[in-house]
Design brief:
The protein is α/β, with parallel strands linked by helices. The chain has a single domain, classed as UDP-N-acetylmuramoyl-L-alanine:D-glutamate ligase (3-Layer(aba) Sandwich), CATH 3.40.1190. The protein has 8 helices and 11 strands. It has a 6-stranded mixed beta sheet. The chain has a 3-stranded antiparallel beta sheet with strand order 7-8-9, sandwiched between helices. A two-stranded parallel sheet has the order 10-11. Strand 8 and strand 9 form a beta hairpin. Helix 2 runs parallel beside helix 3, helix 5 crosses helix 6 and helix 7 packs across helix 8. It is globular and about 50 Å long. It starts with a strand and ends with a strand. The model has no long low-confidence stretch (mean pLDDT about 95). The structure holds pyridoxal-5'-phosphate (PLP). The site of pyridoxal-5'-phosphate has 19 residues, from strand 1, strand 2 and helix 7.
Length: about 260
């Protein structure tokens, strides 16, 4: 049977990030994609022009419809927009403690658009981080979650450990925002130890990489991978999708080619 993965995230009308990237990634891994829309963005390659957050009763209905019928092997969380949505998602997950959760703690888009309310940060820290089977923050997100500056690979090791200490079972801390010439270094940590995943730095501006990486991790978990193998496979996938990426809009932003 084709395994199913559920993304609870935001819609990107421009098709580069969010739910749209998640479903393309699930399809590329031959995993059946389920989706519950937590927020909708009016968006193109140049930015976000509007955000709408549906009633949480409707979000709850979407998630329950998915669990009522499918064998959901993993849940991936993306843009959740508000503290109320986070609380709703956390309570839905509390009722399903055995389902693995990939938490992409989405806060700000590459374009600078705010995708999480300021007063929702605490709910992200206290309600979702401790429920994460694996959290996949980028450096700005990890800095906000920890209230600490992360400006080197050594600091990334400490930050990954600190995020585990705050309750995440495992962490993939993405180092793409570190300035420098060398490889991009992502730091993976779980109960068994720390591991660096390296890739050559690509000199292009891209859209949707974070959503795609977290969805690829989720897809590999749905297919039975352990967390570390899932992260290595997902990181390779994003790198390949970036190399094949294309520019569909009027900006220079590349979106990923999933197929
Ligand atoms: N829009 C939505 C709905 C998202 O979930 C995200 C990222 O998670 C983005 C936009 C931002 O994507 P990027 O930062 O890659 O432009």
């Amino acid at each position: 049977m084709t395994p199913a993965a559920l993304t609870i995230a935001g819609s990107d009308s421009g098709g580069g990030a969010g739910i749209q990237a998640d479903l393309k990634t699930f399809a590329a891994f031959r995993v059946h994609g389920l989706s519950a829309l937590a927020a909708l963005t009016a968006q193109h390659t140049r930015g976000v022009t509007a955000v709408h957050v549906p009633e949480t009763t409707f979000l709850r209905a979407q998630v329950e419809a998915c669990f009522d019928d499918f064998d959901v092997r993993v849940v991936k969380l993306g843009m959740l927009a508000t503290a109320e949505v986070i609380e709703t998602v956390a309570s839905l997950l509390d009722a399903r403690p055995d389902v693995p959760v990939v938490l992409d703690p989405v806060m700000v888009a590459t374009s600078g658009a705010k995708l999480l309310a300021d007063d929702a940060l605490d709910a992200m820290r206290t309600r979702l981080l401790p429920r994460a089977t694996i959290a996949t923050p980028n450096l700005p997100e990890a800095e906000l979650l920890l209230g600490a500056r992360i400006d080197s690979v050594v600091a990334m090791h400490d930050a990954a450990q600190a995020l585990r200490a705050r309750g995440a079972n495992a962490v993939l801390l993405k180092g793409g925002h570190l300035q420098g010439e060398g490889d991009v270094v992502d730091v993976f940590i779980d109960a068994t130890g720390m591991h660096e995943i390296r890739h050559a730095r690509l000199t292009l501006e891209a859209h949707g990489t974070g959503c795609t990486l977290a969805s690829a991790v989720a897809a590999r978990i749905a297919l039975g991978d352990g967390l570390r193998d899932a992260c290595i496979a997902a990181s390779d996938y994003v790198h390949r999708a970036l190399v094949k990426g294309y520019r569909p809009g009027r900006s220079d932003i590349v979106v990923l080619d999933h197929f």
